[in-house]
Amino acid sequence: MIPETLFHSDAWRQAVEQTFDLKILEYAPVSEPEGRGFYATISDIRGDRVIGTPFSDFCDPMIETEAGWAEFADHLRSFERPVTVRPFRNRLAATDESFEQRRELLWHGIDLSGGVEPIWDGLKSKNRTAIRRAGKAGISFRISSAMEDVETFHAMHVDLRKSKYRMLAQPLGFFEALHDRFGDDMAVIMAEEADGTAVASMVYLAYNGVWYYKFGASYPRNYRPNAAMIVEACREGVDRGLTMLDMGRSDLDQPGLIDFKQQFATEELALTTLHWQPEDFNDPTGPEVNRTLGAITDLLTDPVVPNDITARGGQLLYRFFG
């Protein structure tokens, strides 16, 4: 049976809908009425398209028969606009030859069922050294579900995406919507200096027995607390009775990130984004709009632009990146 993930949850879908002003629809195949697939039809300055749950790492169609999948795929194609689907464990979707396979990704997860000790025992010496170094530097860790700590994370998130990646961050309103719906199932792990100054943070969401590492950010420092924060997250997940820590997806052109996750992961899966578009489809404005959005992003993430202006840019423009 295909497991229900965070991205199938009502709370996640509602937060996406509220923040980005769209509607995520549900489809049940006639041949498999207990099955369901999620998608959104989007029409904006980037053109018309269908996305299988936008602004999500992945979202499997909860469909397990070939007939049910064929119905759902036909339904998505019936809109006669480009379709993007990001399956996770649904092999029917991933092997459908009517879709073009693009942009392979890797997903990593950590088994929490045996507790934290096996995870620590499996770490390479360099990670154990980094963890001990953070402790010697006076870095402490705190876990919080307070909105003010989410706001502290978001300021760090805006700064990191701007300075390191020249990208806009998700608007603060998205994190507010998640906080409203998940409550204590949303937590921030804060790494702080002795005086309480935050230097790094990670946002986790708990759903259906899984502890999702969804967002992370840090300020430029020499502490390198990420390994220690993952161990703290594993400990918190075990205390909550969760059985898996989902480390999320990574692009194959991020070898450093992949290597870091592999130090902890007990499971690795290859992910593929599926794409289909109508024959002879032509969108003359799409490439031009994408170039314009890229140029505006470059302007808003220039080092001379104040972070609050960059954050406002994300609030206005991030909806077009789904």
Quickly describe the structure.
The chain has 322 residues and is an alpha+beta fold. Helix content is 39%, strand content 25%.
What does this molecule look like?
With 322 residues, this protein is α+β, with helices and mostly antiparallel strands. The protein folds into 2 domains: 6-106 and 272-303, 3-Layer(aba) Sandwich (Aminopeptidase); 113-242, Aminopeptidase (3-Layer(aba) Sandwich). It contains 11 helices and 11 strands. The chain has helices at 10-20, 66-77, 91-94, 117-121, 125-136, 147-165, 172-182, 226-239, 255-264, 286-300, 307-317; strands at 25-27, 37-44, 47-51, 83-85, 100-111, 140-144, 186-192, 198-207, 210-218, 244-251, 267-276. Strands 1-2-3-4-11-5-10-9-8-7-6 form an 11-stranded mixed β-sheet. Helix 8 (226-239) links the parallel strand 9 and strand 10. Helix 1 runs antiparallel to helix 7 and helix 6 packs antiparallel against helix 7 (172-182). The longest helix is centred in the middle third of the chain and has 19 residues, at 147-165. The chain is globular, with a radius of gyration of 20 Å. The two termini are 28 Å apart. The model has no long low-confidence stretch (mean pLDDT 95).
